[in-house]
Amino acid sequence: MAADRPLVSNRVWTIPNVLSFLRLLGVPFFLALILLEHDVAAVVLLALASLTDLLDGRIARRFNQVSKLGEMLDPAADRLYIFATVLGLAVRGIIPWWLLVVLVGRDVTMAALLPALKSRGFASLPVNFIGKAATFCLLYALPLILLGAGPWVISPAASIIGWAFAIWGAFLYWWAGLMYIWQTQQILRSVPPVKTRAS
Protein backbone atom coordinates (compact mmCIF):
# COMPACT_ATOMS: atom_id res chain seq x y z
CA MET A 1 0.00 0.00 0.00
CA ALA A 2 2.87 2.38 0.67
CA ALA A 3 3.99 1.92 -2.92
CA ASP A 4 0.57 3.13 -4.13
CA ARG A 5 0.82 6.37 -2.18
CA PRO A 6 2.34 9.23 -4.24
CA LEU A 7 5.52 10.86 -3.02
CA VAL A 8 4.70 13.89 -0.87
CA SER A 9 7.09 16.81 -1.23
CA ASN A 10 7.68 20.06 0.66
CA ARG A 11 7.22 22.17 -2.48
CA VAL A 12 5.07 25.29 -2.27
CA TRP A 13 4.86 26.68 -5.79
CA THR A 14 3.17 23.91 -7.72
CA ILE A 15 0.26 24.16 -10.15
CA PRO A 16 -2.13 22.34 -7.74
CA ASN A 17 -1.16 24.67 -4.89
CA VAL A 18 -1.70 27.76 -7.05
CA LEU A 19 -5.17 26.45 -7.94
CA SER A 20 -5.89 25.88 -4.24
CA PHE A 21 -4.73 29.43 -3.41
CA LEU A 22 -7.03 30.82 -6.10
CA ARG A 23 -9.90 28.75 -4.72
CA LEU A 24 -9.25 30.16 -1.24
CA LEU A 25 -9.19 33.72 -2.58
CA GLY A 26 -12.65 33.15 -4.01
CA VAL A 27 -14.25 32.41 -0.62
CA PRO A 28 -14.94 36.03 0.49
CA PHE A 29 -16.27 36.92 -2.97
CA PHE A 30 -18.50 33.86 -2.86
CA LEU A 31 -19.89 34.84 0.56
CA ALA A 32 -20.48 38.42 -0.62
CA LEU A 33 -22.43 37.17 -3.64
CA ILE A 34 -24.68 35.08 -1.40
CA LEU A 35 -25.30 37.92 1.07
CA LEU A 36 -26.02 40.35 -1.78
CA GLU A 37 -28.45 37.77 -3.23
CA HIS A 38 -26.58 37.32 -6.52
CA ASP A 39 -27.45 33.64 -6.37
CA VAL A 40 -26.71 32.61 -9.95
CA ALA A 41 -23.29 34.28 -9.84
CA ALA A 42 -22.57 32.56 -6.51
CA VAL A 43 -23.44 29.14 -7.95
CA VAL A 44 -21.26 29.81 -11.02
CA LEU A 45 -18.32 30.79 -8.79
CA LEU A 46 -18.81 27.67 -6.69
CA ALA A 47 -18.88 25.55 -9.85
CA LEU A 48 -15.58 27.08 -10.96
CA ALA A 49 -14.09 26.45 -7.52
CA SER A 50 -15.24 22.82 -7.69
CA LEU A 51 -13.62 22.50 -11.12
CA THR A 52 -10.27 23.71 -9.76
CA ASP A 53 -10.69 21.26 -6.87
CA LEU A 54 -11.03 18.43 -9.38
CA LEU A 55 -8.14 19.66 -11.50
CA ASP A 56 -5.60 20.22 -8.73
CA GLY A 57 -5.99 16.67 -7.44
CA ARG A 58 -5.59 15.14 -10.87
CA ILE A 59 -2.63 17.36 -11.78
CA ALA A 60 -0.93 16.61 -8.47
CA ARG A 61 -1.17 12.85 -9.00
CA ARG A 62 -0.48 12.89 -12.74
CA PHE A 63 2.64 15.08 -12.58
CA ASN A 64 3.94 14.04 -9.13
CA GLN A 65 3.16 17.41 -7.56
CA VAL A 66 1.58 16.12 -4.35
CA SER A 67 2.81 18.29 -1.47
CA LYS A 68 2.27 18.64 2.26
CA LEU A 69 0.95 22.16 1.75
CA GLY A 70 -1.47 20.93 -0.87
CA GLU A 71 -2.78 18.21 1.44
CA MET A 72 -3.63 20.97 3.93
CA LEU A 73 -4.95 23.60 1.49
CA ASP A 74 -7.34 21.33 -0.39
CA PRO A 75 -9.58 20.25 2.53
CA ALA A 76 -9.25 23.73 4.09
CA ALA A 77 -10.70 25.31 0.96
CA ASP A 78 -13.59 22.82 0.93
CA ARG A 79 -14.40 23.55 4.56
CA LEU A 80 -14.26 27.31 4.01
CA TYR A 81 -16.66 27.12 1.07
CA ILE A 82 -19.04 24.98 3.12
CA PHE A 83 -18.79 27.43 6.02
CA ALA A 84 -19.29 30.47 3.77
CA THR A 85 -22.35 28.86 2.17
CA VAL A 86 -24.08 27.81 5.38
CA LEU A 87 -23.30 31.19 7.00
CA GLY A 88 -24.71 33.12 4.06
CA LEU A 89 -27.80 30.90 3.81
CA ALA A 90 -28.41 31.09 7.56
CA VAL A 91 -28.11 34.90 7.57
CA ARG A 92 -30.66 35.06 4.74
CA GLY A 93 -33.00 32.65 6.57
CA ILE A 94 -32.82 29.99 3.85
CA ILE A 95 -31.50 27.32 6.21
CA PRO A 96 -31.94 27.02 10.00
CA TRP A 97 -29.06 28.04 12.27
CA TRP A 98 -28.90 24.53 13.74
CA LEU A 99 -27.43 23.24 10.47
CA LEU A 100 -24.64 25.81 10.74
CA VAL A 101 -24.00 24.68 14.34
CA VAL A 102 -23.93 21.01 13.32
CA LEU A 103 -21.40 21.53 10.52
CA VAL A 104 -19.19 24.07 12.26
CA GLY A 105 -19.31 22.04 15.47
CA ARG A 106 -17.79 19.11 13.65
CA ASP A 107 -14.93 21.24 12.31
CA VAL A 108 -14.29 22.72 15.75
CA THR A 109 -14.11 19.18 17.12
CA MET A 110 -11.56 18.26 14.46
CA ALA A 111 -9.50 21.36 15.24
CA ALA A 112 -9.41 20.33 18.90
CA LEU A 113 -7.62 17.11 17.88
CA LEU A 114 -4.68 18.93 16.29
CA PRO A 115 -2.62 19.54 19.47
CA ALA A 116 -2.81 15.82 20.33
CA LEU A 117 -1.80 14.84 16.80
CA LYS A 118 1.08 17.32 16.73
CA SER A 119 2.35 15.88 20.00
CA ARG A 120 2.83 12.62 18.08
CA GLY A 121 4.38 14.24 15.01
CA PHE A 122 1.23 14.36 12.85
CA ALA A 123 0.15 17.61 11.17
CA SER A 124 -3.22 16.13 10.21
CA LEU A 125 -4.99 12.89 9.35
CA PRO A 126 -5.51 11.73 5.76
CA VAL A 127 -9.00 12.38 4.41
CA ASN A 128 -11.01 9.16 4.38
CA PHE A 129 -13.62 8.05 1.85
CA ILE A 130 -16.56 8.93 4.07
CA GLY A 131 -15.15 12.40 4.61
CA LYS A 132 -14.80 12.87 0.85
CA ALA A 133 -18.37 11.63 0.33
CA ALA A 134 -19.65 14.04 2.99
CA THR A 135 -17.87 16.99 1.37
CA PHE A 136 -19.20 15.95 -2.05
CA CYS A 137 -22.77 15.83 -0.70
CA LEU A 138 -22.53 19.20 1.04
CA LEU A 139 -20.87 21.00 -1.87
CA TYR A 140 -23.75 19.86 -4.08
CA ALA A 141 -26.49 20.27 -1.46
CA LEU A 142 -25.92 23.89 -0.46
CA PRO A 143 -26.02 25.51 -3.92
CA LEU A 144 -29.09 23.41 -4.73
CA ILE A 145 -30.77 24.72 -1.57
CA LEU A 146 -29.77 28.23 -2.64
CA LEU A 147 -31.34 27.71 -6.06
CA GLY A 148 -34.34 26.15 -4.37
CA ALA A 149 -35.05 29.43 -2.60
CA GLY A 150 -35.33 31.25 -5.94
CA PRO A 151 -38.27 31.93 -8.25
CA TRP A 152 -37.12 29.62 -11.04
CA VAL A 153 -38.93 26.61 -12.52
CA ILE A 154 -36.23 24.29 -11.16
CA SER A 155 -36.46 25.72 -7.62
CA PRO A 156 -38.90 23.17 -6.08
CA ALA A 157 -36.92 20.18 -7.38
CA ALA A 158 -33.60 21.82 -6.47
CA SER A 159 -34.83 22.38 -2.90
CA ILE A 160 -35.93 18.76 -2.42
CA ILE A 161 -32.72 17.30 -3.86
CA GLY A 162 -30.60 19.84 -2.02
CA TRP A 163 -32.07 19.06 1.38
CA ALA A 164 -31.73 15.32 0.77
CA PHE A 165 -28.02 15.82 0.03
CA ALA A 166 -27.65 18.19 3.01
CA ILE A 167 -29.10 15.80 5.58
CA TRP A 168 -27.11 12.86 4.24
CA GLY A 169 -23.98 15.01 3.99
CA ALA A 170 -24.28 16.25 7.57
CA PHE A 171 -24.65 12.68 8.78
CA LEU A 172 -21.59 11.53 6.82
CA TYR A 173 -19.65 14.61 7.97
CA TRP A 174 -20.05 13.59 11.60
CA TRP A 175 -19.51 9.90 10.81
CA ALA A 176 -16.14 10.79 9.26
CA GLY A 177 -15.44 13.01 12.27
CA LEU A 178 -16.02 10.14 14.68
CA MET A 179 -13.65 8.01 12.60
CA TYR A 180 -10.98 10.74 12.91
CA ILE A 181 -11.49 10.81 16.68
CA TRP A 182 -11.03 7.03 16.81
CA GLN A 183 -7.89 7.27 14.64
CA THR A 184 -6.50 9.95 16.93
CA GLN A 185 -7.10 7.76 19.97
CA GLN A 186 -5.28 4.87 18.26
CA ILE A 187 -2.34 7.14 17.45
CA LEU A 188 -2.15 8.41 21.03
CA ARG A 189 -2.07 4.83 22.30
CA SER A 190 0.48 3.46 19.84
CA VAL A 191 2.80 6.34 18.97
CA PRO A 192 5.09 7.83 21.63
CA PRO A 193 5.20 11.62 22.05
CA VAL A 194 7.67 13.50 19.91
CA LYS A 195 10.72 14.52 21.90
CA THR A 196 11.36 18.23 21.86
CA ARG A 197 14.85 19.46 21.18
CA ALA A 198 16.76 20.68 24.17
CA SER A 199 17.34 24.45 24.08
From TrEMBL:
Any one GO cellular component localisation term in the record: membrane
PANTHER family: CDP-DIACYLGLYCEROL--GLYCEROL-3-PHOSPHATE 3-PHOSPHATIDYLTRANSFERASE 1, CHLOROPLASTIC (PTHR14269:SF62), CDP-DIACYLGLYCEROL--GLYCEROL-3-PHOSPHATE 3-PHOSPHATIDYLTRANSFERASE-RELATED (PTHR14269)
GO biological process, one term: glycerophospholipid biosynthetic process
TM ranges: 12-34, 129-154, 160-182
Single GO term (MF): CDP-diacylglycerol-glycerol-3-phosphate 3-phosphatidyltransferase activity
Tree of life domain: Bacteria
Organism ancestry: Bacteria, Bacillati, Actinomycetota, Actinomycetes, Propionibacteriales
PROSITE patterns: CDP_ALCOHOL_P_TRANSF (PS00379)
UniProt family annotation: Belongs to the CDP-alcohol phosphatidyltransferase class-I family.
Subcellular localization, as worded in the UniProt entry: Membrane
InterPro entries: CDP-alcohol_PTase-I, CDP-OH_P_trans, CDP-OH_PTrfase_TM_dom, CDP_ALCOHOL_P_TRANSF_CS, Phosphatidylglycerol_P_synth
Protein name in the entry: CDP-alcohol phosphatidyltransferase family protein
Pfam families the UniProt entry points to: CDP-OH_P_transf
Keywords: Lipid biosynthesis, Lipid metabolism, Membrane, Phospholipid biosynthesis, Phospholipid metabolism, Transferase, Transmembrane, Transmembrane helix
Gene3D superfamilies: 1.20.120.1760
Membrane topology per record: Multi-pass membrane protein
